[in-house]
Specification:
Layout: H1 7-27, E1 41-47, H2 51-66, H3 68-72, E2 74-80, H4 84-95, E3 107-110, H5 112-120, H6 133-137, H7 141-146, E4 157-158, E5 165-170, H8 171-181, H9 191-207, E6 219-221, H10 224-234, E7 240-243, E8 246-249, H11 253-261, H12 264-269, H13 279-284, E9 290-294, E10 304-306, E11 312-314, E12 317-320, E13 331-333, E14 338-341, H14 346-359, H15 362-372, H16 384-391, H17 398-414, E15 416-418, H18 426-453, H19 458-465, H20 468-486
Parallel strand pairs: 1-2, 1-3, 6-9, 13-15
Antiparallel strand pairs: 3-14, 4-14, 5-9, 5-12, 7-8, 10-11
Helix pairs in contact: 2-15, 10-18, 15-16, 18-19, 18-20
Length: 487
């Protein structure tokens, strides 16, 4: 058993169950209500939810403990472990029994790469053993498939809430630009069209001031790894090809050039940017009008923009599916951590799965999703009707509601959702994919600024920096870093 329970906690849990038993026996004439006659089970869960997501999760945990948990002698205790990367480090440290690390919890939230690391150590329970075929079939198939790591079908990750990426737009500041130039939201359907609109926006904002080359950026995106991974997949070559546990890199130069041209080139020109920690931060300060980010990040898209001079004004928004490459099949990332149950003994594992099944029933799952921005995981909950009905009972911000409806539309067939297979050192490899092109774009954008300060026009400065040689240098560095990461 991986968790050590304190005597004090066990006494408290026993008192809770005995108290519930006494009350129910008095109401029901002494008849048993199905609660366990054994000592109560305390299940610890580590997660990375913050803000409204954490509050919603905590509320549902409390509800479970007061209802199903009380009936069956299960108490769930949830612990926030920081952001997702903080959580992953603590999970791996616990699995490795590092000095100073806590013991492995009964359940922890994890993306596939972290879950795979714990699975390789033989420390994960087979969740599928606690689900009937009917229960398995009630979930979105792609979500269940992501959590299967072995040929024998062992299920390691229980999907509880997923997300994809969406395109979010400040329509208040978009409108005058669109009216002046004839720009259309239809351009957002492709990365090529988006780059053209961003260039036009830069030129339009530049024309509004007497200074030259002081136009504003239009767009930014979070998680550049998703751009590269989904883009490679969409254009015909998965960046990571995993065969029998062995990973092969498929770095296609032509595909990489197309990715470079539609992100790096707009970035060094100043049409795209990344300033704050998240692009929603840049939207709040008016540094960009549009972004691609997680559907779970929709609650953070601003309703008010505050400029650097202190001027603040309210804005409206719209949400669209993310762009695709011209001529390619619509595709988007499938993401969002699931829950991994650590291997212990059947009663503890079953108790953990009991909570997860309860949490993912449509009623509970939709309540969590409407607060958090995540997408529900069952077929029954992934309908416009189910979402509308649940939304009627909750007050939610407009971008969140728009993102959920857009996400459900994508899940139900409009987009092919993709996530690469898990593999050893997958976290390190993804870090390279996430940072390599972004770092090069930022460095070269700074070079362009310095050249402009020396008197060169933006076009001439970009021509000196964004060369074929620059692409080849980046591609060679990218390839070398990835080969080192996957070992």
């Amino acid at each position: 058993m991986f968790m050590k329970k304190s005597g004090q906690l066990l006494l408290r849990l026993t008192a809770v169950v005995l108290s519930v038993s006494f009350v129910l026996s008095g109401c029901l004439g002494g008849k048993r209500t199905g609660q366990s006659s054994k000592a109560p089970v305390s299940i610890s869960i580590w997660h990375y939810y913050n803000g409204v997501q954490k509050q919603s999760f905590d509320d549902l945990v409390a509800e479970f403990n007061d209802t199903v948990g009380a009936e069956q002698g299960i108490v769930v205790e949830a612990y926030n472990k920081g952001y997702v990367n903080d959580l992953s480090r603590q999970v791996i440290a616990a699995a490795n029994q590092d000095v100073g690390a806590e013991e492995v919890p009964d359940v922890f939230a994890a993306y596939a790469d972290t879950a795979y690391e714990v699975y390789r150590r033989g420390m994960t329970a087979d969740i599928g053993a606690y689900l009937t075929e009917e229960e398995k079939n009630s979930y979105i198939p792609a979500y269940m498939e992501e959590g299967r790591f072995s040929k024998n079908g062992q299920t390691v990750i229980f999907p509880i809430a997923k997300s994809t990426e969406v395109f979010m737009l400040n329509t208040t500041d978009w409108q005058p630009f669109a009216e002046a130039t004839g720009a259309s939201v239809e351009s957002f359907a492709t990365w090529e069209g988006l780059a053209e609109v961003a260039e036009e926006y830069y030129r339009w904002t530049d024309s509004l001031t007497p200074e030259k080359d002081d136009g504003k950026a239009f767009f930014g995106r979070d998680a550049l790894a998703n751009y590269l991974l989904i883009g490679s997949y969409q254009l015909g070559s998965e960046l990571f090809d995993v065969i029998d546990g062995q990973v092969f890199l498929r770095i296609d130069e032509e595909i990489m050039r197309r990715l470079w041209d539609n992100y790096y080139v707009p970035y060094v020109n100043g049409y795209y940017t990344a300033i704050g920690r998240f692009r929603s931060d840049d939207a709040k300060t008016g540094d960009i009008l549009a972004l691609v980010g997680s559907s779970a990040g929709a609650p953070y898209f601003p309703g008010t923009v505050t400029l650097s001079d202190g001027e603040a004004y309210e804005v409206e928004s719209a949400v669209y599916p993310p762009p695709n490459f011209a001529g390619a099949k619509p595709s988007a990332v499938q993401q969002g951590a699931g829950m991994v149950v650590t291997k212990s003994e059947p009663r503890r594992e079953a108790a953990a799965v009991t909570f997860l099944k309860w949490f993912t029933r449509p009623e509970q799952n939709l309540r969590f999703c409407l607060c958090s921005g995540y997408l529900p995981v069952t077929k029954a909950a992934n309908t416009q009707e189910a979402l509308e009905q649940a939304a009627d009972n909750q007050q939610i911000v407009t971008p969140l509601k728009q993102a959920l409806f857009t996400g459900i539309e994508m899940v139900n067939g409009r987009y092919q959702l993709y996530t690469n297979q898990a593999f050893e050192k997958g976290d390190q490899a993804r870090s390279v994919v996430n940072l390599s092109l972004q770092n090069r774009a930022e460095e070269d954008r700074e070079k362009v600024r310095r050249l402009m300060d020396q008197g060169l026009s933006r076009q001439k400065a970009v021509a000196r920096v964004a060369t074929d040689q620059a692409f080849q240098e980046w591609l060679a560095d990218f390839t070398r870093e990835l080969e080192a990461a996957v070992g």
